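Let us practice reading a record.
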Amino acid sequence: MNNTALIRGLTDTHAHLSYLQERGIDISQIDALVDDGFGFILDIGTAAGDFSPRWAQLSRYANVRFSCGIWPHAEDLAHRFAVVARLEQDLDHAPAGAVVAIGECGFDRRENPAAPPEECELLELQLDLATRRNLPVIIHSREAPRETIETLARYPAVRGVIHCFSYTLDEARCFLDLGYMISFAG
């Protein structure tokens, strides 16, 4: 079996291509992948304002799509309303069809072990935005299954993916019951 048969129709729904470029890694083979039948690559946003630089770096690749979201960094938690307003500006100025999801957003107990209430509020602001824009979400949830499930349950119209799933089978069922897909990332 050749490589074309192996990759035909595959997609990468969670890439950080701009991070690779920042580290000097050549990503020019994207075009060759697409020529061989690879579906598309979703380049993930993690900060308000990161869309324009990513777009400038990656828009030449026809099959790269983008998400816009705010990962729960302490600085962003402190300024959550301002960063979400900036995220909305990113979406307002994005070319039609370029942004296909909100995220990566969510909870991270390794980075925020005290579970600050601002973290939930930042996620809820992005879930509200996803609702208004009719976009799916990419949820980052590390060591926070209960609060992630409880928060997502309050937004029944929103769907998306639980990125890099690392919880139990019962928790997987809860996410699936809420209408989410689960990612088992490498």
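A brief commentary: The beta strands are 12-15, 41-43, 64-68, 99-108, 137-142, 160-163, 181-182.
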